[in-house]
Amino acid sequence: MTVKKKKKAIVIGTGIAGLAAAARLAIKGYEVNSYEANSYPGGKLTQIELDGFRFDAGPSLFTMPFLVDEIFELAGEDPKKHFNYQRLDPICKYFYEDGTRLDAHADPQAFAEELEEKIGEPKENVLKYLAKSREIYEITTPVFLKSSLHKIGTYLKWHTIKSVFQLGKIHTNISMSDFNTKHFEKEKSVQFFNRFSTYNGSDAYQAPATLMVIPHLEFHQGAYFPNGGIYSISKSLFNFGKQLGVKYQFDTPVQKIIVKNKQVKGVELPDGSFDEADVVVSNMDVYGTFKKLLPNEKHPEKVLNQEKSCSGVILYLGIKKTFPELDLHNIFFSKDSEEEFNTIFKKNQVYHDPTTYLNISAKLEKSDAPEGCENWFILINAPHNIGQDWDTMIREARKNIVAKLSRILNEDIEQLIVTEDYLDPRRIKSRTSSH
Fold first, then answer.
1. For residue range 290-308, what is the model confidence (pLDDT) as tens digits?
2. 403-423 burial string, b = 16+ CB within 10 Å, else e?
3. With a threshold of 0.85, does the pTM exceed it?
């Protein structure tokens, strides 16, 4: 009797997509080898520890948890045996310079009433906007999130044809900011909803209003916090991959994807050896995949040369105090958001009064900070790296951020910092190969 040989797959990189791909391929019956240049899994979705404080290193807002659950379910497993989370309400607290404070409630009706009470925006405007956000999501999701645009079959499906006939409803011909300005009565509402463009690194004054789809994920599908912090997503999928038989090799940067007769055959490893496979999946940034791993193949130049999204600067601060007025997610707005966007996207500089995002996982995961302390993950939007003087910009940004938080919270934050680190576009690129 002939024993059928298992197909083999190689996954390059253990970022969240690489971990998910490795697990899915193993579930499909592939023998999977996963190679990672770093000494740890997770890519951007990893963690750092500083003097008794734990920080999720990168992503911090979690929506669509069912996509993580699905991976365990595909293997016939109960997700709750591997991964658990709780729904947030409020989702985020917002602070304006004039003292206005908002709670973004998970329930759209409660949120609309909050905006009407605190800033005078008619709740009907908010509810209509969120309804439009849902409509855009329902039009675009079958095509852009659940299909492969490079496959001809996608364009022959009914949901694609249906979406094409509804393109006028997704507002591609007006900027997000212009749409928001026409829709809302209050400047604070416009600033609130313009911020969502930065979720994918876009400028609200240039990007299409189609991006108003983003609030739908929070206000209709919900925002969540994984038990153990965001890193538990990577950790649970990594452990599950090992359970499924995935072989992870760290400190092993793939040197090249080997192609013969227009077919991928495997990869070249650091010692010059060749690992053959039926399937190779690259979790590297598309730019690095082609420039480093496929240098001799035809490159999609239009894709590789397209305009870059903004990046970010992150401060990790250990704070020797707790702040009851703060929550897991907090936003401190700039006084002039239009000039902030202009400075980032047109001047390629960090704005002197940046909109500041503050995440404190210790609010829900007490062990992330020593007793009586908080772990402050602070993110501001920044331009992508074109060789700016980052050392000076980071030094100035830190000073401005600490001053801004001290002013709004009426506390000398500098005196409360007991440990710190930072992440900037240069470090992001060197650690995760993000172009």
1. 999 999 999 999 999 999 9
2. ebbeebbeeebeebebebeeb
3. yes
